[in-house]
């Protein structure tokens, strides 16, 4: 059941609620819909379709869903405890927030999951969806001061983030950035710390502005992202705004 524990900390409860229900035996699709409507705040059918596309250990035979893994008493108890822990922690972490929660940490796969996209699509730092973009940026705080000068991603003010695009940015991508209504912005101070890959902190929505081509021939553009929320003081040191 590494798959279920790998979803922690939960960014949505749908997977756990479905498995919880199926522990009692096979259920119809309609029963799943009714159960999620009762247990998931703001539930919409598209979320269930997305869950069933990627959820492991659940098989669908026509209108019937069931767990595809045999359960002995020991495994059943483990899964029940895991589900209870995951659901309780979700409430503690997210409260009544159904979207991304400000200042909470997310892995890239979790962001894609919550946006109803492919959670395996984690190879680049910028994603273009409908009328918005999703930006992941690492601030390279672990580098020496001289080396940091090569990187342009940084907070200029608590509510203003300077972001550098990918190299050789295609014109079509530039147009998507300029036409986007907002950007979801996720930041981390460095890629790894003590041998562990760090998650990204959600710093909120921002508006892309002031696109300008950088010096040199690497084809990158700088943008100013005006954030809806100011970075709280406790994150300003980690994200390079303050020195102490």
UniProtKB/TrEMBL annotation:
Alphabetical list of Pfam families matching this protein: DUF3427 (PF11907)
InterPro entries listed in its UniProt record: DUF3427
Start and end residues of each DUF3427 domain: 101-233
UniProt-recorded name of the protein: DUF3427 domain-containing protein
Organism name: Oliverpabstia intestinalis
Taxonomic lineage: Bacteria, Bacillati, Bacillota, Clostridia, Lachnospirales
């Amino acid at each position: 059941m590494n798959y279920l524990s790998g979803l922690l900390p939960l960014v949505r409860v749908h997977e756990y609620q479905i498995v919880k229900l199926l522990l009692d035996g096979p259920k119809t699709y309609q029963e799943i819909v009714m159960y999620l409507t009762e247990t998931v705040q703001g539930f919409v059918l598209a979320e269930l379709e997305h869950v069933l596309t990627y959820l492991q250990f659940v098989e669908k035979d026509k209108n019937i869903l069931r767990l595809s893994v045999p359960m002995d008493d020991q495994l059943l108890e483990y899964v029940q405890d895991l589900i209870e822990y995951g659901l309780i922690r979700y409430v503690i972490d997210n409260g009544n927030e159904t979207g991304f929660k400000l200042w909470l940490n997310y892995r890239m796969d979790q962001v894609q999951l919550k946006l109803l996209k492919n959670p395996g699509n984690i190879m680049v730092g910028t994603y273009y969806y409908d009328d918005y973009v999703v930006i992941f940026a690492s601030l390279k705080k672990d580098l020496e001061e001289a080396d940091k000068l090569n990187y342009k991603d940084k907070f200029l003010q608590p509510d203003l983030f300077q972001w550098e695009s990918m190299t050789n940015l295609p014109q079509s991508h530039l147009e998507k950035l300029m036409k986007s209504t907002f950007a979801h912005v996720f930041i981390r101070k460095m890629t790894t710390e003590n041998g562990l890959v760090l998650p990204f902190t959600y710093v909120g929505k921002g508006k892309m502005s002031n696109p300008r081509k950088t010096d040199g021939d690497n084809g990158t553009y700088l943008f100013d992202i005006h954030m809806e929320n100011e970075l709280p003081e406790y994150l300003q040191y980690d994200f390079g705004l303050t020195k102490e």
